[in-house]
Amino acid sequence: YVGFPLRGWRWTKLLRGVGYKVKVKDGTEILFLSWLVNCIVPAKLGDLYRAYLLKLNSPVSATKTLGTVFMERILDLIAIAALGVLAGYWRFRGNLSDLPPMAQFIFALGVVVVVVLIVALVAMRNFGRRVITILPLPHRVVDFYDRFEEGVFGSVGVRRLPLLGLLTCLIWATEGLRLFFVVRALGFSDVDLGLSGAMFVALIGSLLTAVPFTPGGLGLVEGGMGLVLTKVFTANPSHALAIILVDRSISVFSIVLLGSIAYVISSKPRAGGMTVEEVVPARAPAG
């Protein structure tokens, strides 16, 4: 839960890049409510709900806001893949050739994810507007894309990127620490992850949550974590199951419980309003 204020702070920095000054408290509150939605419905609809809530409570562009959420997801995926590879390399250093095929596949997948995301961003930045204008689309769709692209590329900049990168790394470090503390608390003698191993497993689970088939990645995350714990770290299946259930109870079911309480007492879903100042973006919009 320490990660939520960090996430809220990062999102407000992204919003500041497109000209909206939002308080960290308000950003964190809206973000937490969007996580509740992501935990109970599939397809990452909580991300759309986040943009809707900000628009509902302030005079902002929902499309630009959605662009900042998209960029946030890109930063997350790059950090998850990069940190997962680094954690795995540190954990298995000197024995990479002896890794099980699954672990080698995960390393390769992490590298591919980072490369694909970077290439996609470069292509979008340089060719997205041209492709949209060539296609026989209504002018309204072109306007939507322009605002979305401004939200994506206007939200980050050279000056903000170091802080955004640091916050993203801290956010995902909390994911690894959660699993590390769960393993230490249960005290199974056959499960020796260490901090780097816990980061590796937790980030694999986080990567699987990006697959928008089930709410909160239910089923996919548990299966992926279970395979890694049993096949790569040779954990007892019953011990691996206990670790996964405790970890997911904290990361998913506690959010459903506490998020439902937050939904009831928060004024944001009922358009209670919030203060958002419009500022001059720190960099020119893309396109």
Description:
This protein has 287 residues and is mostly helical. The protein is 72% helix and 2% strand. It has 10 helices and 2 strands, in the order αβαααααααααβ. The protein has helices at 3-17, 24-40, 45-57, 62-91, 101-134, 139-154, 161-186, 194-208, 220-232, 237-265; strands spanning 20-22, 276-278. Strands 1-2 form a two-stranded antiparallel ribbon. Helix 1 crosses helix 2, helix 2 (24-40) packs antiparallel against helix 3 and helix 2 packs across helix 10 (237-265). It is globular. The two termini are 37 Å apart.
Put the structure in a nutshell.
This protein has 10 helices and 2 strands. It starts with a helix and ends in a 9-residue tail after the last strand. The model has no long low-confidence stretch (mean pLDDT 87).
Q: What class would the helix/strand composition place it in? A: mainly alpha
- Number of distinct helices: 10
Distance separating the two termini: 37 Å
Describe the sheet with the most strands. Answer: 2 strands, antiparallel
Helical percent range?
A: over 70%
Unreliable runs, pLDDT <50, ≥5 residues?
A: none
How does the overall form come out from the CA principal axes? globular
Strand order of the largest sheet: 1-2
Mean pLDDT: 87
